[in-house]
Design a protein that fits this description.
Radius of gyration: 19 Å
Oligomer: single chain
Number of helices: 7
Shape: flat
Length: 111
């Protein structure tokens, strides 16, 4: 919705969750389809992502306590995936309902 409303270029920060979702899905698919022992490569990205989420949670133990620290990885993962799925759904929805999502160079000039 942000992309359609503001009609501006999307920043890399806004595309990062979508890229992560695609990378995670591709990795999990590779883990399921590749023969042994190559299937282990497919688990690399999800494991690194899980480790990053867990380490983010561990930084909160001293400040917020163990309960909050255990919930941080879950909350962050849900936020990332929700943002990504919502972005993809919005892009599909708006591209089907409005083919002209991108402004022409003439439309972007001020004046």
């Amino acid at each position: 919705a942000v992309w359609k409303k503001h009609r501006s270029l999307v920043s890399p920060r806004q595309l990062a969750p979508v890229g992560l979702l695609i990378l995670l899905l591709a990795s999990l698919l590779a883990a399921l389809l590749l023969p042994r022992p190559w299937h282990l490569i497919g688990w690399l990205v999800p494991l690194v992502y899980a480790a990053a989420l867990i380490s983010a949670g561990l930084t909160r133990v001293k400040v917020d306590g163990l309960r909050t620290a255990l919930l941080v990885p879950l909350a962050m993962g849900l936020m990332h995936m929700s943002y990504a799925v919502g972005s993809v759904a919005g892009l599909v929805w708006f591209s089907l309902s409005s083919p002209a999502l991108v402004r022409t160079p003439e439309e972007t000039t001020d004046g």
